[in-house]
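ZP: hey, is the FE-MO-S cluster complex queued? I don't see it on the tracker
AM: it wasn't, my bad. submitting now with these inputs:
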Amino acid sequence: MATLNPEELSPPVAEMKPAVVDINAEEVRKELLGKYPTKVARKRAKQIVVNEIGPDGAVPEIAVNVRTIPGIISQRGCTYAGCKGVVLGPTRDIVNLTHGPIGCGFYSWLTRRNQTKPRGPEDHNFMTYCFSTDMQEEQIVFGGEKKLKQAVQEAYDLFHPKAIGIFATCPVGLIGDDVHAVAREMKEKLGDCNVFAFSCEGYKGVSQSAGHHIANNGIFTHVVGLDDTVKEGKFKINLLGEYNIGGDAFEIERLFEECGFTLISTFSGNSSYEYFANSHTADLNLIMCHRSINYVAEMMETKFGIPWIKINFIGAEATAKSLRKIAKFFDDPELIARVEEVIAREMPAVEKVREEVKARCAGKRAMLFVGGSRAHHYQELFREIGMETIAAGYEFAHRDDYEGRRVLPSIKVDADSRNIEELHVEPDPERYRPRLTEAGVARMKEAGIELSEYEGMMAEMCSGALVIDDISQFETEKLIEIYRPDIIGAGIKEKYTIQKSGVPMKQLHSYDSGGPYAAFKGAINFYREIDRMVNNKVWKYLKAPWQEHPELAAKYVWE
Ligand code: CFM
């Protein structure tokens, strides 16, 4: 067997274009746009900006949440994915029934690695099943409502679930099946099972973001507030926008317990239908992923008076800061002391690994192109080991996730967003109860904790960093060529082209086989993994197929 001789592997990809330290981001931007036809370039120019933080903290405006230009290879998903896969998918005891062709159900089934832990053998866990009406030509031609009713009945007879959620896929909208009418009819017929439907056809919005909104509306309308039981516990919280990918929520739950917080519900990692139904009894909502769940937080505040704060458990420092924020909200000396104890107990192990890893990673550079919140959150973890994020962007976030909620009033609502219903919510006549007095609000302000506020990603990035929304495959390859980053955090669709370019890629959606990365123990896992990846010499010797076979190279990229 031939042994690997690095000398023969020349020229290594990493040496083809050496890393340039002082790269002018404006020049890079021009280079990216230069390859596009004029009309496309004009549109992309508004979606690719060089970050600059003004004296008042203001950042440049970015055009986002708009349709991807046909022909551009985007990493976005569909509205159905955002509704069924992202928001409702991680709930273990709702039968999530896809009304559509089998592929929609199958490919949205557990690929995100959202985990769950049933409370005991009696607790339902349907996440190991893939439920679909498996539409055939007959239903497309003659309608699928009959088959949908049969499927709901079959699921009920087999499992007796507390709830069944119906999710519409593209063909359902095209042929006009009324999923809501079916849900109403079956709910009445079954009697002891809550059946509700989502008009989350894949084409409904410009990305999965529309699906988040539809899911938030549905769960708020049909589930939140159904169970008024007041549970024991002094410091009651909900965790919104944490989906337990790779076990993240387990690690956060452990900390909550040690600190003495009572977690009423998570939307929706390691969650159950009953938790959602009871979630309005909590006193504080914590928002982890602002993009996917801010609607529920806003509606719960209007209807029940529960305030929300933005927290982040990605990064050890961010975790400590978030725990302190929560303790400050409840303003209980014993609680504050316990939180400090937990932080003091957890930190030494984090520090030890961090120092060791930082020595090898400091000065290296990352790029992050992920979803609607992680491209921001993971910058914290990289910063802790001395790595700067030089370019980042979301796939489907809105301007508030980039520029902060201060821009909300100036966001123009276009036809695509108008497609998604805005629920009209009013204070509940009996159950509305503001959780903070005016003095309480003032106290939070004094402590520097803003209620209902999110600063967005750009304010925390360095000036001169590139911010790119809905990055294309072409732009990714170009950035690699110009910057030669030490690592890219992105998703499975772009993973292998990045790695073939000789750059390691960390999958920040499902984490591949890794995780948890949240909170203190998660940070340790992440430091170690990034260390292994960026300091692995194998990438330097990698020869991409298009180097050995130039005829494979697409001219527009490598000319
Ligand atoms: Fe929120 Fe998510 Fe994300 Fe998201 Fe997602 Fe995800 Fe994501 Mo993949 S809810 S926006 S739609 S943090 S599935 S758990 S990793 S793109 S950055």
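AM: back. The chain has 24 helices and 14 strands.
ZP: great, adding it to the tracker
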